[in-house]
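Notes, Module 5: Reading structure tokens.

Key idea: the token line is not a picture. It is a compressed description, and you learn to read it the same way you learned to read a sequence, by spotting repeated patterns. We will look at two proteins. The first is printed below with its tokens.
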Amino acid sequence: MTKFDSFGFEDSLLDGLTSMGFEKATPIQEKAIPLILENNDLIACAQTGTGKTAAFLLPVIDKICKKQSADISVNTVIIAPTRELALQIDQQVEALAYFTGVVSAPIYGGTDAGEFDKQKNALKNGADIIIGTPGKLLAHLRFGYAKLDQMEHLILDEADRMLDMGFYEDILNIIEYFPKERQTLLFSATMPDKIRKLAKKTLQNPKEVNIAISKPAAGVMQAAYNVYDDQKIALVSSLLKGKDNYKSIIIFASTKLSCKNLSRQLKKEKFSVDEIHSDLDQSEREVVLRDFKNRKLQILVATDILSRGIDIDSISLVINYDVPNDAEDYVHRVGRTARAENTGLALTFINPRDQQKFGKIEALIEREIPKLNLPEGFKQGPKYDPNRRPSSGSKYRGKKKNFSNNKKGGKRYNKPKKKD
């Protein structure tokens, strides 16, 4: 693996890397950094946990250091899908650029008037790197006070997630405010057609880097349980008992209701747990994340808002309380563990309705995930059949039933007539 001192970085940037204990580049950093330093536009496809944030931050920070311009203006704009990710990137800039003097500012919604003015000043008076969510960044740009004439770099992070969230038009509108002559970097975990379409509109003759697309990290031990829905909460409790050596555990649930119900039950059982979902305001979410990151909480129950973007190393266990709707999202949920060459465990609960979805996950990652027996005291779970139709059961399930009044005033069910 390539050492960071081989890239020709400024000494002040290398000092920051040394203080953080970073010596060798990850594969995505090894391939992307030289291309960015050569001022190429870039499409980079890499899964969560591969070091992609540093892959674009390090060369950009280095170029800002070498420029040494006396003019204070925005040099780089990074667009990210969520507040959490924008804050995470801002924190990483602060750490990497600690000895350089490079300044960053996050731009995101859900803030009070004082925070809005702070964001306005960063855009108006200049900050080297702006990290913003699409909606809030566009709102600021429409006021016309952003100082962007010297902007050199545009970075789209988690581009596939932004498009999934409906930000395609916002991104195109934002780009209209930027200089035509710039370097554009697009980072994405997956590369569907819609990302190719966006890249064609925003990048010029881009180079491409692809690293381990849609495969969980090698250090993740994966397993699954076939369960009925009414067994899930009890199974979580059973699995967590005696796991005091697991310092950080994330449980992903597909709905806010499941998230709340599970968190409530675990609190009753005296587990160190809290929840995060869209019903919490920004300040509440930040407190929960900070407590979890600082190991004040052992267990975090979260909806998919955290399936990508959270930067917390050494997650011991990930539990998929529900099978994610998209196979790629499984990779990102599982990617919370076994980061930075650590090992981790990922468990998934599969109810009959989700067996077909889990089959697609196994097809995507090209391996069969072991199905474990339920612990002693649990009734047997459903048989696993990845070809099972989601609506399996009664042959009339999902069809509109045909009721008519009988002579006694009640209702009876009339089976549909067979077609000739």
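Here is the second protein, with the sequence above and the tokens below, as before.
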Amino acid sequence: MQATQVQQLFDHLAGAVQVDGDNVSVLNEAALPAKMDELVWTAVFGDGLVRDAARWLIWEIGLAVGVYPASIHELYLAIGRGDVPHDFTVPAMNIRAMNYNTSRAVFRAANKLGVGAMLFEIARSEIGYTGQRPAEYTAAVTAAAIKEGYRGPLYIQGDHFQISAARYASDGDAEVQAVKDLMVEAVEAGFYNIDIDASTLVDLSFPTLDEQQKVNYSLCAALTQHARELEPDGVTVSLGGEIGEVGHKNSTVAELHAFMQGYNREVGDAVGISKISVQTGTSHGGVVLPDGTLADVSVDFDTLKELSQVSRDAYGIGGAVQHGASTLPPSAFGKFPEVGTLEIHLATGFQNIIYDLLPQDLVDAAYDYCRENHASQWKEGKTEEQFLYSNRKRALGAFKKEWWSLDAETQARIGGALEKQFAFLFEQLNVGDTQGVAEKTTTKVLVHKARPSAAAAAAVEEDVSDLAD
């Protein structure tokens, strides 16, 4: 399944793909799905030059058949202007585990419903504990699209490119530079959508809202200007800001104004954000009860509606973004498009489906790993069930290869359950039949990559495993 030499990749693609120097052309599009499994395996688990060559081939094959990394910026501003009827909420899906199999399930559901307005994302913290650098993530998603016959723009997003409050307090310049460096890597990998998150630095002890939000909006503006310097020609990276840390105090309209007014002053002539993340009562992963089940959570839909409307009317951006939503009750999802929510972030629910359907020996191994390697996360007063539920995400990278290696029957069972959940969410969020509007409002920019050289084959490494999400 894994190539060890670049020529093996070319031989594997013979008859379907022709490579002439830096030029990649597709000879037989119908033959491509059968080629993807081995190609993506090498792109994920290969080494050095052959790994990077597999990623390059997936990228270029995607461009050749009409699968291309893109920015959702123009669609969001069209919604902000009122040019696109806003009766849908864009799902942003954090694909933490079994990326290729999970993304294939997304595309099967999307193909059936005509979904184009959707984001694939991974947070700064998730990059660490899932063991997925941006170039790998893009390769897996693109290969899944090719495998399932999906065509159109791929909106791939860096979620919570977050400033760690602890690291910022220790060395602010180094922490900001770390996020800037990650943005460079991400944009190079086709992440043309990035959520900037300095909301960890909001300080409610100050007497005025401007003072409370100042570090947040100043850093968001500085990182916006940095992002604009990284963009490929013709691409405007979609950027988001955040006014309140998820899991903390609910956001207010006054805070929205304080952030946006300060941000607009400091961002200058640079193109600004297209959306704003807010806090309305949820938390990442849900609130875990002592028995390991989740507590009921109430979303403040009135606040979400007001914040979305004000952000469009006063600032011309697409609207408000809801985080920490995948573990909400099924009856909640239809409310988000009703109140004008622009985007909703979904992660833990998909991880839960995979854990529920994994062979028990793999679950046990993952739990043992968490007990042995992340005991420091076991907070005083928490039961073992709470500890394991909250921390089993930390085993995803360690067991990535074992999970990708599951037998076809188990992969299909997990993929089928995920597809059903994605289809449900797409229907509830009303994003069916959005492929046309996505393509119409997205500038199609085909960014070609040069064939990787041995000198450029080293992976970019950064320890992000201890970041909270």
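Summary for the second protein:
- The CA atoms of residues 100 and 411 lie 10 Å apart.
- Residues 6-65 form one domain.
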